[in-house]
UniProtKB/TrEMBL annotation:
Lineage: Bacteria, Bacillati, Actinomycetota, Actinomycetes, Mycobacteriales
Cross-referenced Pfam families: adh_short_C2 (PF13561)
Name of the molecule in the record: Oxidoreductase
Homology family: Belongs to the short-chain dehydrogenases/reductases (SDR) family.
Domain of life: Bacteria
Keyword line: Oxidoreductase
Organism, scientific name: Mycolicibacter sinensis (strain JDM601) (Mycobacterium sinense)
GO function terms (MF aspect): oxidoreductase activity, acting on the CH-OH group of donors, NAD or NADP as acceptor
InterPro entries to which the protein is assigned, alphabetical: NAD(P)-bd_dom_sf (IPR036291), Sc_DH/Rdtase_CS (IPR020904), SDR_fam (IPR002347)
Amino acid sequence: MVLQKDAATLDGRVAVVTGGGSGIGRGIAETFAEFGAQVVIWEKDPATAHSAAAAVGGLACVVDVRDPDQVDAALTGTVAQVGLPTVLVNNAGGVFASALLETAPKGWDTLIRSNLTHVLLCTQRVAQALVQRGVPGSIINIASIEGTRAAPGYAAYAASKAGVINFTKTAALELAPHGIRVNCLAPDLTLTEGIERVGSPEMLANARYMIPMGRPGHVEEMAGAALFLAGDLSSYLTGQTLHVDGGTHAAGGWYHHPGSGDYILGPPRPNLES
């Protein structure tokens, strides 16, 4: 079989992007629309939901994806207005710092609900609709490199993202007989508008030492990986986590020496002599 050019398109497909009002989610929504998808933004903030939907010629659904009743209503509305989604991107989520010894149960529960529970709810509801109709699909969960390594000061966040990665594997196996693929995208430092607004110059400068490719990622690069996972180019790929991180996951603790540029095992220390 020879691949056709249209294998890279999403023509005729309905794609739901949760948390698609900003950041990586919005970049994915814009890319999907550019490649032919009818995009639906599931977002709890009305302003960003409608802004993003207008930018891509898509549909906005104002929904808190942590609430099962709201997810059901959003799916019903999506199907009624544009059709059954065959692509789902579980991108919504949040993060805050909380040291292990100071993490309160309420804070823990908040991040688990925001980053993991909604992945179950949205995946389950969309998959149920696909299975009922005998339609294949692709589900993409947005995790993080912090789901595969220790994250001091962010125990709840890291645990929730690790949960997303393992959930992806199990969901992939259960849904494979139905032709539904489930994969995961795990970014590292990515230049979203939020990072550019609050990221310190030191953090951004240190990316050249911490990331093998010497720079943070761009939203379009995450969107390109999501496009691959959504379409037919990845038709035999399921249960996998794609690390779009400039090589950080592969590095496993190796960093660029600030002076020589050679790799060293240990943290970057700009005051080292070359």
